[in-house]
């Protein structure tokens, strides 16, 4: 699912939902990839150093998307065609699973910059700033960053809350798997009582993006989780019983459509509704009130009837709501 995030309101609005059905070939390829990673993580002392004979340089800017990224890229491209006429979109924020070069290339192919998260053991290098030695290719990579001993020149802010010190570092660095420079923010937390140190690495393909905005935009990605929460809690995303591919997709899209509709109603509501529960209570109460009025046995005076309808609707629509407001009685 893709949502557009209003940075000023700090709220996400779901716009495109698509069901993922992995093929058997894709499942098998995923299992093989996991096995390779498991073998790679095991340390072998007999591993030869240097490049394998006959290995060639790879073009790091060649688009070679996986089946998963192809699905995401297709949905993203379709969505951008629809909304770019109304909204200027510059960044796409994806979670740490997509913190790699191919995701950057997919974003750039759609004229966007990626904001994501790198693995905590990612090897980042400073750009080499020394003099050219005069022989061979110019040196590109400088010193590798040590996250527990970051150079002070990259420090942007340091703050302490209780026994926790948080340091924010930012710079433009190189990664050997990426075809371009990346703008990285390293957040280092130091627990003074326990002496433990932890860090997280956020990055963007936009080297001009400020470190505070980079952190803020990545954190706003979590607003999408609230879309899922509301769709599940209020609009039946995890309760529908259909099992066909089209039925599941329709049910999911309907749930997220209701999330959008409720957000619009809450924004424009003159009632004192501050949440989806209040909104549902209000409309349920209005329905009960109208049905009650329909079964009145005696038809009262027209003027009194209008006042009664307004009061009954107002009173019944508040029944069960969390945030109650006093209703002035017309008979008082």
Low-confidence segments, ≥5 residues, pLDDT <50?
none
C-alpha geometry: elongated
Helical percentage: 25-40%
Task: State the end-to-end distance.
Answer: 52 Å
Main sheet record: 6 strands, mixed
Backbone CA Rg = 28 Å
In round numbers, the mean pLDDT is 84
Overall number of strands: 10
Helix-strand pattern: EEHHEHEEEEEEEHHHHH
Structural class designation? alpha+beta
> How are the strands ordered across the major sheet?
3-4-10-9-8-7
Which percent band covers the strand fraction? 15-25%
Q: How many individual helices?
A: 8
Describe this structure in words.
It is a single chain. By secondary structure, the chain is an alpha+beta fold. Among the domains are: 88 residues, no CATH class; 64 residues, no CATH class. Helices cover 38% and strands 19% of the residues. It is built from 8 helices and 10 strands. The chain has a 6-stranded mixed sheet with strand order 3-4-10-9-8-7. The protein has a two-stranded antiparallel sheet with strand order 1-2. A two-stranded antiparallel sheet has the order 5-6.
């Amino acid at each position: 699912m893709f949502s557009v995030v209003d940075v000023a309101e700090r709220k996400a609005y779901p716009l495109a939902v698509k069901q993922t059905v992995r093929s058997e070939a894709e499942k098998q390829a995923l299992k093989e990839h996991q096995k390779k990673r498991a073998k790679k993580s095991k340390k072998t002392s007999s591993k030869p150093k240097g490049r394998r004979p006959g290995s060639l340089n790879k073009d790091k800017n060649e688009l070679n998307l996986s089946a998963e990224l192809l699905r995401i890229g297709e949905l993203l491209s379709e969505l951008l065609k629809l909304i770019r006429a109304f909204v200027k979109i510059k960044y796409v924020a994806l979670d740490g699973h997509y913190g790699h070069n191919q995701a950057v290339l997919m974003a750039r192919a759609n004229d966007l910059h990626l904001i994501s998260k790198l693995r905590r053991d990612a090897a980042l290098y400073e750009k080499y700033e020394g003099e050219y030695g005069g022989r061979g290719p110019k040196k590109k990579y400088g010193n590798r960053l040590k996250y527990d001993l970051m150079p002070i020149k990259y420090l942007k802010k340091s703050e302490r809350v209780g026994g926790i010190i948080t340091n924010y570092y930012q710079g433009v660095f190189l990664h050997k798997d990426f075809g371009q420079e990346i703008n990285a923010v390293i957040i280092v937390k130091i627990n003074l009582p326990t002496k433990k140190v932890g860090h997280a690495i956020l990055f963007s393909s936009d080297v001009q993006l400020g470190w505070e905005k980079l952190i803020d935009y990545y954190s706003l990605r979590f607003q999408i989780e609230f879309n899922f929460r509301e769709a599940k809690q209020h609009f039946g995303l995890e309760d529908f019983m259909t099992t066909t591919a089209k039925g599941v997709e329709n049910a999911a899209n309907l749930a997220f459509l209701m999330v959008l509709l409720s957000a619009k109603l809450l924004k424009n509501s003159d009632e004192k509704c501050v949440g989806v529960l209040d909104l549902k209570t209000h409309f349920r109460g209005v329905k009960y009130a109208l049905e009650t009025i329909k079964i009145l046995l005696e038809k009262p005076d027209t003027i009194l009837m209008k006042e009664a309808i307004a009061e009954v609707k107002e009173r019944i629509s508040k029944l069960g709501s969390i945030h109650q407001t006093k209703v002035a009685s017309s008979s008082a």
